[in-house]
Design goal:
By secondary structure, this protein is of the alpha+beta class. The protein has helices at 45-63, 96-117, 120-124, 127-144, 147-155, 160-189, 191-199, 206-226, 229-234, 236-239, 241-244, 256-259, 300-303, 324-335, 348-353, 362-383; strands spanning 68-69, 72-73, 75-78, 83-86, 89-91, 250-254, 270-272, 278-280, 343-347, 388-394, 401-402, 407-418, 424-425, 427-432, 436-440, 445-446, 451-461, 469-478, 481-491. The strands form 7 sheets. Strands 10, 11, 12, 15 and 17 form a 5-stranded antiparallel beta sheet that branches. Bound molecules: iron/sulfur cluster (SF4) (2 copies).
Length: 496
């Protein structure tokens, strides 16, 4: 009997036998309590490659704040000072439109990538999976043993040995969470500011210390208790899978065409090979009308799953594409003399039709076109970004002054952003109407990638003024080159 949910993973009739997985979450019991998962330690080719990739990514994550390009960190997301650095290029709030279009193109890219490759990102690159499966889980296996030993330990009475194991595990977990919290903060405030918090008198950095402590406990809670729930219930990308993937998306998939009808080995016919090994055939001579598939219903793919699902039920929201079930099944296939890849990267359609996965579909073409347009816009904005930019505002709380020669004056505050990698000599000039500028504490030289602030006065003759508000335009010059112009207003009397 075929106990698979269905070969058609789009069937939506919950009354179907084997469809229970559609109405229940594997980590929630019928009483609504948490089903604590004990996934078996995976082993195999994919797990080994993922381990190597994980160590590289963890190394990069921890080294990131210390790597500098053009004197700037490789990535800085300083929301507090509204300064963002990507690959050594500084973006200020004035560049928000560039960041917004950049983010939009990133989102479209993620949608495009997911439509083709499913949740590949989650299994291989996502920090949550990498930390959980490749760091915290490995430490847990090392201290408490594989799944059966962990289960036994949790159910055993409280002894010195249990206290030692649990204490060591939680202590190491908190230490790593503390390190992760520091690194995440370094991506927000920069490694130099973080170093000040760590080395200076704690009373001077209470906010920073509170943030580190808070982050540490959040990470500790996530990796100690919340675990796979992040991927199943909290992650918005995970929740979006149902609209992002379709039957052409490539994901970790069970080959139901080859695997069904599944049955245990002892229900099958044994054959002896020339080398003396025993092979369990797929043809049952007792039930001649039945042909067994390659799945021997050993549940090894389920036992290793960190989200507690059965991949044979088809693509599911909970699947993070971690490949653990692929390794587990390949090992079983090798042991029983069958070809590997019963659970593999494939699309539902390719398995249904027995063809190679088709990557280029009309939907993918549409996403690609959209991505090309938005990314092109991003490149255009980036390429035409001025070398320096000024924000000029009339000084708040002041009106105009009348001078003895009949001219009028206003005070202005200015912020100038040098967006280049070099120091720049820049000057603010009055473009319109005719008048004079007198700088008050404006430096001549702008350091590379820095923001300077200053003030200046503008003098306009009465003949140039309009009643109350006169439009005024400033130019930011580098030598004789106008690099940016800014509009503002000049306040004057009703009848100048
Ligand atoms: S079904 Fe397989 S790939 Fe998906 S989460 Fe479980 S073990 Fe990982
Ligand atoms: S590991 Fe392979 S053979 Fe065993 S139950 Fe899973 S799919 Fe079937």
């Amino acid at each position: 009997m075929n106990r698979s949910s269905t070969p058609d993973n789009l069937a939506l009739d919950p009354s179907d036998k084997g469809q229970h997985f559609r109405d229940a979450v594997s980590t929630i019991s019928a009483e609504g309590r948490r089903n604590w998962l004990y996934p078996r330690k995976p082993r195999g080719w994919y797990y080994d490659v993922r381990s190597v990739v994980s160590w590289i990514l963890i190394g990069f994550l921890f080294a990131g704040p210390f790597i500098k390009i053009n004197g700037q960190p490789i990535i800085l997301l300083n929301i507090l000072d509204r300064k963002f650095v990507l690959f050594g290029t500084v973006f200020w709030t004035q560049d928000f439109h560039i960041l917004a279009v950049g983010m939009l193109s990133l989102i479209i890219f993620i949608v495009l990538f997911t439509a083709i490759y499913g949740r590949l990102f989650c299994g291989w690159v996502c920090p949550q999976t990498i930390f959980m499966e490749m760091l915290f889980r490995k430490i847990e296996y090392a201290i408490e043993g594989d799944a059966p030993e962990q289960k036994r330990l949790n159910r055993s009475p409280f002894t010195a040995n249990k206290a030692l194991k649990k204490g060591a595990k939680l202590g190491i977990f908190f230490g790593i969470s503390f390190l992760i919290a520091n690194i995440f903060l370094a991506y927000i405030i920069g490694v130099d500011a973080l170093w000040e918090i760590v080395t200076n008198d704690p009373r001077e950095h209470l906010t920073g210390l509170t943030a580190i402590t808070l982050f540490s406990f959040v990470f500790f809670g996530v990796f100690t208790r919340f675990r796979e729930q992040v991927c199943i219930v909290a992650c918005p990308y995970g929740r979006l899978q149902s609209v992002l993937v379709d039957n052409s998306s490539i994901a970790v998939t069970y080959d139901f065409a080859r695997g069904e009808d599944r049955s245990l080995l002892n229900t099958r016919q044994k054959e002896k090979r020339d080398d003396g090994s025993v092979f369990f055939t797929n043809n049952d001579k007792i039930h001649k009308d039945r042909k067994y598939g390659d799945c021997i219903d050993c549940y090894q793919c389920v036992k290793v799953c960190p989200t507690g699902i059965d991949i044979r039920d088809g693509i599911q929201l909970e699947c993070i594409n971690c490949t653990a079930c692929m390794d587990a099944c390949d090992e079983i296939m090798e042991k029983t003399g069958r070809p590997t890849g019963l659970v593999r990267y494939a699309s539902f359609n390719s398995i249904k039709d027995g063809l190679k996965a088709r990557l280029f579909t009309p939907r993918i073409a549409a996403y690609m076109a959209l991505f090309a347009i938005v990314f092109g816009l991003f490149v255009y904005f980036l390429g035409t970004r001025p070398e320096a930019e000024a924000v000029i505002l009339r000084e708040p709380g002041r009106t105009w002054n009348e001078l003895p020669d009949g001219a009028y004056s206003n005070f202005y505050n200015v912020k100038i952003f040098n967006k280049t990698l070099n120091d720049q000599a820049v000057e603010v000039r009055l473009l319109h109407p005719a008048g004079e500028i007198q700088p008050l504490g404006l430096p001549d030289l702008l350091p590379a990638h820095e923001l300077v602030e200053g003030r200046f006065m503008v003098f306009l003759p009465g003949s140039e003024l309009q009643p109350v508000r006169t439009p005024i335009e400033f130019g930011l010059y580098s030598g004789d080159q106008l690099i940016h112009s800014v509009s503002s207003v000049f306040i004057g009397p009703q009848n100048p």
